[in-house]
Fold this protein.
Amino acid sequence: MSARRAEIEAKRAKLAELRRAREERTRKMQAGAAQVTPTSAGAPGATQSVDELLASLLPPKDEAPRPETDAEAPPPPAAPTEALAEGPPAPAPHAEAAERAQADAEPAQAGAEPAQAGAGPAQAGAAAPPPERILYSKEVQTDPAPEPAAPEPCPSEDEAPSAERPALPPDEPRAPAVQAAAPVSDDFTEFVQTKSMIMERILDEPYDVLTDYTHVPADRDEAAPASIQLVCTFHNDTWLATRSVTDLDWSAKHPELVVAAYNRKRVLAQDGDHDGLVAVWNMHVRERPEFVFSAPSDVVSVLASPFHPHLIAGGTYSGQVLLWDTRHRDVPVQRTPLAFAAHGSTTHAAPVYSLRMIGSAHAHQLVSASMDGVVCTWSLDMLARPQESLVLTNPLHPRRAEVCVTSLDVAPRDTSRFLVATEEGNLFGAQRFDRAGVQAGLDTSRVYVGHSAPVTRLECHPAQARGEAAPHGLSGLFLTTSMDWTSALWRMDAAPSPSPPSGAYHYPHANPRIATSQRTNPLAFRASTSTPTWSAIAPLVRFENQHDYVMDARWHPQHPAVFAQVDASGQLDVYHVGHSLDRPLLTLSTPSARALNRVAWDRRGTLPEHGAAVAQRLATGGVDGRVHVYEVAETHVTPRGDADWAAMARALQQAPPPAALR
């Protein structure tokens, strides 16, 4: 109570002081008005000028400045007495003190009015100066209210001490904040892919920055290079996981590009896993393919056009032939119709395992063969309808006349003739057009008998295709591989083997049990007393050093006596016919030791712009989806002209004669 009483007494003293100050100002104003002389009242011009000067210096009454505070400002006081009378609102305990202050202020205001009225006669001649404005601040009238302190911010979870921070369970890590991806245009995506591929080529270029050009190597420093060595392996888990390589080819225009065909994924997790793929790999970018093309089904054969560096043809398991363009990504630019939608034309209705390009750069055609015995000729400008269709039939077959073609190749000098390999193991010649005395179709008068299982590859010798003249007796060579664990070297115009005795053979086949057994081949004895109408041709050489299915073989593009083959045990063999017919020149196994399906030499040196370059790289592809590229020593593949042909002829002459049909 004493503190509150002291506060009331202090406010009373302050009000008394304000009263005395007001009374003193009133007395001064009255004394100044009494001293005005009569002469000043007789000069109206001077009085008017003084009024104008005061009006220009003093602001109007309604524009008087008001104190600005954080709280809402009270209305402006009409007079000093009103400002004093109204005052700020006092709290409830101070109501008695405020009433006393107001009661004291009322007599003073009443006493001031007569004084002002008494001064009226003295101001008759001149207007009294405006009263001085006295503004009181709130600090004088009341004590300042304490401002509430701002609440301290709560520490975030990251700023909390480690002791107070709640520990997350170890098996539930905090998920990162997901931010919405900004939209990216197709042009920007293509730009990034193109430029990143260029940067990868630059970074992948091998260069030894520590090479000492002042060092003179000694004899012991010059180690002999390996005969064959692994250069690189192409694989990409994103695209090629659980896929197998079904075919390989190299680009003729760009020798560093290798084309690989793949089947569908064995584990179908997404919609795109049902599609076959064709990947174009670059020797300078080994982490990802240069191009990836899709197909509606498994791609079982592929061919890089030797006349168009941008075009790639592929045969599918569904019977379609697709054409891709590297300038148009992903999808094929042309495709052949399916058999049920061919509208009267004969097309493939079975897997297309063989593709060949015939002709020249100005006039060329694509030849395809399928397992249903249909051979079609296409123009690359229009794949909607075949230019030619030929259905191969074998009237000698005791069970079915349909020919299951597993591989095809065209004769180098005569493109109207071609050779086909069948699923039963026999090889046949065929004609594309009717000739005098010869009809178009399969030539059953000459049967190449030597394999007792499906033939996996047939390839003619490339010497005549390059325009080289082969020695007499070595023209028309071709190579075959089979699932009977053997490969064979044939001659197209070889003399037939001695005819079997009448009634011994009624269907030509390498396996006597198939050819003569009444149980497995009952229809073969339709004419047991007639002489066979066919001539059996045996291979020149059989290579029997393999221990599994021989899946593929390819001739070297320049060397006439060198070829490479792969088998299902993952082994790669390089043969030199002029050196040995029993043992391969080079042998190695792939790093993964998985089965190999295809092999292909690069096409370096096949075009005039390549100069004197020699093909040394060899690509293999297998069931694990990996493409291994090997480099063969130059000494093994550099051709020596006629010396190679002579060595090859001597080796074939010394070979034992082919075994007669038993």
The chain has eleven helices and 29 strands. Residues 406 and 419 are 11 Å apart (CA to CA).
